[in-house]
Amino acid sequence: QQQVKQSPQSLIVQKGGISIINCAYENTAFDYFPWYQQFPGKGPALLIAIRPDVSEKKEGRFTISFNKSAKQFSLHIMDSQPGDSATYFCAASKQGGSEKLVFGKGTKLTVNP
Amino acid sequence: ETGVTQSPTHLIKTRGQQVTLRCSSQSGHNTVSWYQQALGQGPQFIFQYYREEENGRGNFPPRFSGLQFPNYSSELNVNALELDDSALYLCASSSRDYSYEQYFGPGTRLTVT
Q: What local confidence, expressed as pLDDT, does residue B2 receive?
């Protein structure tokens, strides 16, 4: 049973464009939703995270949109750059994030120059 | 402030052997979580240690075991290695005292032949 579904599996955008990655979850007990960026051969790096008491959180070019009723959240990367080319993972956790992270399967983003 | 470190970087073992992987948590963090990441997949939770006690376990057999030491560093031990154990093993450190954000190390790439 996949608790966090992520789409698309891969994404190609042009430099300067907007990259959008979507995730849906099933367990309503989840209350912490982080996004991680992973480059080949490296560990995942925490990008940005949101809790259900807000519908949107922005940090620089990265924005999380959260829809509690639909049990969906998404990552928007504005002004995408070739250096953003990486695999992005959404995740979810319970108890404010103190429990295990349940990850989506990842989205491979390629930003063409 | 030092980040999460893991050793070794790469490891090649033979089926049936045993392996020990090590993780040093980020300064100020008291919780370590271990994840297994198969190629092209999202990380899967193995177990978590908080103040030297196991605090949650994923769907992994008992031949996966761990320890956390008083300085909050941790070990992951895998006995009777199987070919399917080939993966990137990640540890993530966090603090249950002020923030639950999990920060990952670079991982150990284990190959079982």
A: 67
Q: A14 vs A19, A35, A85, CA distance in Å? A: 9, 22, 11
Q: What is the pLDDT of residues A9-44, one digit of tens each?
A: 999 999 999 999 999 999 999 999 999 999 998 999
φ, ψ for residue A83, nearest 5 deg: -70, -10
Peptide bond into A52 cis (omega under 30): no
Residue A59's Cβ-side half-sphere holds a number of Cα atoms within 13 Å equal to 9
Q: Which are the contacts of A94, defined by CB distance < 8 A and separation ≥ 6?
A: A27, A29, A30, A31, A32
* Amino acid found at A17: G
The encoded tokens of residue A100 equal 């295990």
Contacts of B42 in chain A (CB under 8 A): 6, 89, 91, 103-106
Per the CB < 8 A criterion, the answer to whether A108 and A6 are in contact is: no
Q: Are A103 and B104 in contact (CB < 8 Å)?
A: no
pLDDT in tens, A63-78: 999 999 999 999 999 9
Assigned token pair, B81 = 């290695």
**Which residue of B6, B58, B104 is in closest CB contact with A44?**
B104
Tell me how many degrees the CA angle B87-B93-B97 measures, rounded to the nearest 5: 155
Q: Is B89's Cβ below 8 Å from some Cβ in A?
A: no
**CA A10 – CA A3 distance, rounded (Å):** 20
Q: Please choose, from the candidates A91, A109, A23, the residue with its C-alpha nearest in 3D space to the C-alpha of residue B102.
A: A91
